[in-house]
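User: My instructor asked us to take a sequence, write out its structure as tokens, and then describe one feature of it. I'm not sure where to start. Here is the sequence I was given:
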Amino acid sequence: MNFLRNLLAAILGFFIAIFLLFLLFLGIGAIIGSDDVVVVKPNSVLELDLSSPIKDYAPKDQNPLAQALELDEEKLALDKIINAIDNAKTDENIKGISIKSTLINAGVAQTQAIRNKLEEFKESGKFIYAYNDIYTQKNYYLSSVADSLFLNPVGAIDFKGLSSEILYYKDFEDKYGIKMEVVRHGKYKSAVEPFLTNKMSDENREQITSFLQSIWSEMTNDISKSRNISIEKLNEIADNSDGRNATIAQEVNLIDAVIYADQYDEILKTAINAKVEIISLEDYIKSGKGRKSSIAKDKIAVIYAQGEIIYGEGNENLIGQGIINKAIEKARKDKKVKAIVLRVNSPGGSALASELIWRELELAKKEKPLVVSMGNLAASGGYYIASNANKIIAEPTTITGSIGVFGAIPNIHEFSNDIGINAEQVSTNKSANYSLFEPMDKKFYDVTKEGVEQIYTTFVNRVATGRKMTFEQVDAVAQGRVWTGKEAIEKGLVDQLGGLEDAIKVAAELAEVDNYRIRNYPSYKKDFKDAFKMMPFAKSQKEEILKDALGDENYRLYNKINQMKNLKGIQARMPFIMNIQ
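Assistant: Let's start with the prediction itself. The structure tokens for your sequence are:
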């Protein structure tokens, strides 16, 4: 009896301690949050710093504990940035915008969307100025929208045109006996090309050159209009690296003046003829300006599908049929939701998960208009889930298409032989089996190839039906080929060019509603364990340690290789891993 009494007392004490700890954290959160009210003061200048990672959608954590303790770190989201700039246009306290960002941590399509919104802001008559010590190329593209650009006397502008680098592993595989067994369909489906050869194929070079030129054309067109420099002259500047120092940059009209930061502050002060109150973009969003308020009864649902597509539940960074399909079903059953906009920002992934999401969207389309808005990427599986929409709207710089599939399986047969490992198999039947330690036999290859061909045929048929094209017409622009949004509209894969706001307007027109509000999906709710991990003293997660040790660029490369290693099933994904510079 004493043992049981002591055991129960210990258990009760444990839960009381947990409860008291929770109350302590709640109190700390309340104290921290008490001074967190942001007020927009008169004579404010909105400062844009976009060096933090920008997602299309970054909702607040729905976990009450995380909210109470303010453990959900603030993330910049494209929709909030766009809304903030839109609200600043009519905000009497905001006199202008200052762009001061070391880099732009967003995709080209996201950057273009922000730039377009800044162009609209200028219609209000308020100023936009930009200052930096160094302009990266994407940063300069955004900042060129400003009325005046300023640069530090010893600064520079990285204006050189676009380039891309892809790593190839064939020699590494041959040297160490570790390789990927590949089955694919599509002459442009080169996600697996680095494992098959040690040089870029003509087809891959062709498509990369094509979409880099298309994106560069968009960027130079926009810069040309803002800076009044001909496109020919801009290419000459890029060829000669004329942004390499401040003096030359001013001579070729990339900037308006060479000044120091304190002189820039004086320019802002002169512009509003008063003491300047700088408010950061994050604080402006916190003040409530990151959203549009409406009391309309009718709703347009915006469902965000961002990240790689996996078979499973999914989360804020990965598209899984679990969370996404629940969001689609919820929007479909809500009688106040009159239309659905699917915002896609994905390189693709699991073909099975893509098909499951496609099916749920097909059901929703039977009841309500379905419009797709494409972000930075809507390629392969990302295009699969977009293909049955009533209308598809893409940014000119969106990377899309890539209609093709592949399977990739790691194999260490030669490596295991070299280190003295032999694997023996025993089976009850003669079905096609695969072992990591044995070469892929013809029977397994044939079965896998059949699956790849079946999924490719299904994929093309889905696109043909959704886009009202023949199988042959889709196949001609498929084969894994990647297109920009501007190219895709010529191929019949996209209906019109524009951003998320344009897609919402089209959805409202199709639903025949004039007065509506936006309802964003999905909601994400972390459990207690995830909330605990967000606490400062619990930062020592593997991902955080690796990111701190490797740096952002190396961590991204590590992450991509790790993702390739963990691929499961036949994939409909972007044809290569690359970074546009």
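For the description part of your assignment, you could build on this observation: The two ends are 72 Å apart (CA to CA). Try explaining in your own words what that tells you about the chain.
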